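Retro notes (design track)

What went well: tokenization of the new backbones is finally stable.
What didn't: we kept losing track of which sequence belonged to which structure.
Fix going forward: every design gets posted as structure first, then sequence, in one message. First example under the new rule, 570 residues:
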């Protein structure tokens, strides 16, 4: 075999030139942990910051043990741990959609637990926990997965642990593996599940009557798990938005080169428009829709179409431009008031008539639903193209959410803009292309920001477990000023929300605030971006060199940072 052929074979199974190099990338750690080579365990204490929500009283009644223990107080570092804890058995799992940096949470956790405690990985997400699919994570495993993207080391799923039987199964897994702690690396729903498990497992699990600790870690590319002043962003957001921004930047460059297309780009992010706002700030396209603004201004579908059509006409008439880019947030459809009312009716209807609906043939379902809708919603439903109707009736995910990633809003908008232009300005050229950037961004190699952030999150999770804490989500704040590990009491974030026709405990999604500095900056610039080509091409993400330490622009603006650089450990 030639030398080249041998080299190529050696690259199989995550051994590309890049993957080999990236494993050696040094990661900074927050000063509180001491030397990066041997991070120290920590002692946490409350400084009197107590969290509350509008439903705190109801939550306290549902979570009496964890609320009594934490007092819903935030924990900050009080110094190094007094003594080394050993013999703990900890199981960690991924929950929900993948996000870059998950592997580094495991690596940071493994490093903090050290050789005298045991870390298990749970295969296949919460379902794997129910089934007891645990295996020990070794130092060699951690060295292999360090700085690599994806969740493929463990896998993930969207099982929500909600029935008494499921809680009992978790208990049996804890007993069978003699666990001391469970780590749930997930988004808002998964961290709500972590709070429920922390309460359920609080006492009486082990032979001596003690419980099993539960700690969450904030993951989701959507960026909608944020706590002002305490959790600036969830991990995975930076990597996903940098990947989308690179692709959108390439498309903008193409529009200016080929001079003939309007590209409609839908961006993942579920309900919140954080991803879309971040990509817009990075590439400066002609039109960007922000769902939260559309809801606030109560813009109808027709008004949104009118707005895009005007931009198309103005760019052509004023500058002769036949091209442009429209960014569309994934969850837009739920924020258009008349669509939101329709979806709410559909959610209730599908929950209450689940069996009858499931028994129908696919082509009979729209009529079954239409007959049970209010007059306004039925009229809207009848006006929508088949490709939207079938997706509105598609199965909800296990948390009761409409699967917005399946709805081709970008196609709907461009079809409607095309139809509007035919009557408004038939002389204006309007050729279109459509894209959906979503899955491409979830499993890429983490940016240096996500790699460092998640490693420090893992260290924080480990320190909380060694200190015996339960019912908290680990966080690292102060990302542009050194980084500060802290713990947020999960019950301090929980509200009661109507889902699937029932009241449920949830951590509310953090949506884009119209008065947030990042949004304000965007609204101040967007008219200029619409009038002419002002785009920037952010290029591929960098792990070495001057562009490596960039942080998300929305985070920098919202946190009042002085520059676009993260400074963990400095
Ligand atoms: P999480 O909130 O679980 O991290 O999921 C994020 C996400 O990527 C959303 O942006 C998207 O709507 C959804 O997952 C897609 O889910 P699925 O992987 O089940 O298709």
């Amino acid at each position: 075999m030639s030398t080249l052929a041998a080299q190529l074979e050696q690259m199989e199974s995550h051994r590309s030139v890049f993957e080999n190099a990236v494993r050696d990338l040094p990661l900074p750690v927050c000063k509180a942990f001491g030397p990066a080579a041997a991070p120290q365990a920590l002692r946490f204490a409350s400084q009197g910051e107590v969290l509350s929500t509008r439903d705190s009283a109801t939550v306290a009644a549902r979570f009496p043990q964890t609320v009594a223990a934490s007092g819903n107080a935030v924990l900050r570092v009080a110094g190094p741990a007094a003594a080394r804890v050993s013999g703990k058995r900890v199981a960690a799992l991924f929950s929900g959609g993948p996000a870059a940096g998950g592997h580094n949470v495991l690596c940071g956790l493994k490093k903090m637990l050290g050789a005298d405690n045991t870390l298990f990985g749970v295969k296949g997400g919460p379902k794997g926990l129910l089934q007891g699919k645990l295996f020990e994570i070794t130092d060699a495993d951690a060295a292999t997965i360090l700085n690599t993207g994806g969740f493929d080391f463990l896998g993930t799923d969207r099982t929500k642990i909600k029935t008494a039987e499921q809680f009992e199964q978790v208990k049996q897994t804890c007993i069978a593996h003699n666990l001391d702690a469970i780590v749930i690396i997930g988004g808002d729903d998964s961290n709500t599940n972590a709070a429920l498990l922390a309460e359920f497992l609080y006492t009486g699990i082990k032979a001596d009557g003690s419980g099993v600790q539960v700690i969450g870690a904030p993951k989701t590319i959507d960026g909608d798990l944020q706590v002002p002043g305490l959790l600036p962003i969830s991990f995975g957001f930076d990597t996903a938005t940098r990947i989308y921004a690179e692709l959108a930047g390439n498309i903008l460059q193409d529009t200016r080169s080929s001079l003939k297309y309007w590209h409609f780009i839908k961006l993942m992010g579920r309900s919140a428009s954080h991803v879309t706002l971040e990509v817009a700030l990075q590439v400066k396209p002609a039109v960007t829709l922000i769902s939260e603004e559309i809801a606030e201004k109560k813009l109808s579908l027709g008004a949104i179409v009118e707005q895009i059509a005007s931009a198309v006409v103005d760019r052509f008439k004023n500058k002769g431009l036949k091209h442009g880019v429209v960014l569309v947030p994934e969850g837009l459809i739920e924020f258009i008031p008349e669509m939101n009312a329709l979806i709410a009716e559909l959610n209730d209807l599908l929950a209450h008539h689940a069996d009858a609906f499931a028994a129908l043939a696919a082509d009979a379902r729209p009529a079954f639903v239409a007959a049970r809708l209010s007059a306004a919603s039925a009229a809207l439903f009848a006006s929508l193209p088949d490709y939207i109707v079938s997706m509105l009736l598609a199965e909800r995910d296990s948390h009761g959410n409409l699967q917005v990633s399946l709805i081709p809003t970008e196609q709907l908008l461009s079809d409607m803009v095309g139809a509007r232009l035919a009557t408004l300005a038939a002389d204006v050229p309007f050729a279109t292309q459509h894209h959906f950037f979503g899955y491409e961004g979830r499993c890429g190699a983490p940016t240096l920001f996500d790699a460092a952030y998640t490693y420090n999150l893992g260290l924080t999770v480990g320190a909380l477990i060694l200190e015996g804490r339960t019912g908290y989500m680990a966080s690292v704040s102060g990302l542009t000023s050194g980084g500060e590990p802290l713990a947020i009491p999960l019950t301090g974030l929980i509200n009661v929300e109507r889902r699937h026709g029932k009241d449920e405990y949830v951590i509310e999604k953090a949506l884009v605030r119209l008065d947030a500095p990042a949004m304000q900056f965007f609204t101040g610039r967007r008219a200029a971006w619409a009038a002419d080509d002002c785009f920037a091409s952010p290029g591929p993400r960098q792990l070495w060199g001057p562009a490596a330490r960039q942080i998300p622009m929305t985070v920098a603006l919202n946190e009042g940072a002085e520059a676009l650089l993260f400074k963990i450990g400095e």
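Added context from the reviewer: Residues 237-330+408-445+509-539 form a domain with the Rossmann fold fold (CATH 3.40.50.460).
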